Amino acid sequence: MGYISELRELIGPRPIIMVGANVIVVDFENRLLLQLRADNNCWGLPGGSMEPGESLEEVATRELYEECNLTANQLTFFNIFSGEQYYYKYPHGDEVFNVIATFVCSNYKGELREDKEEVLSLQFFSIDDLPSNLNPPEIPILQEYIHTRGRKIEDYSFG
Q1: Which among 9, 50, 145, 146 would be 20 to 30 A from 31, CA to CA?
Q2: Using an 8 Å Cβ cutoff, are 131 and 34 in contact?
Q3: Model confidence pLDDT, tens digit, residues 23-50
Q4: Which of 57, 56, 30, 31 is closest to 122 using CA atoms?
């Protein structure tokens, strides 16, 4: 997170607009890959912030590899998420308004391996049995993904 860290040195924890990407990884059983984040102990999607000069697809590809050791053979654009509901205050005090490009990936290679600095665990979950401690900015993303997959939102419990 070099670019964001450099900004933080200049402006401190006050709110910034942070552009990034994440990936909904789907395995052959239609389960979703989630990572237990080291910063807030919540389950979330692999992803992170954009570095200068990167495309959103490059961010998604890089973060998937860095955090999970998976290489995306194909990414499919899902949606862009932004607005007040994507505000987040990190446990250490930094505040962001996220602008998130979400991609779906079911064609990937590699063996799961956590980035020890950012990820405590990696696990595939059935969409019928997602953990209750989901990363707050990703709850509406997962809800929309499940909804577009033909399921009713009220059939699921989030956070």
Answers
A1: 50
A2: yes
A3: 999 999 999 999 999 999 999 999 999 9
A4: 31
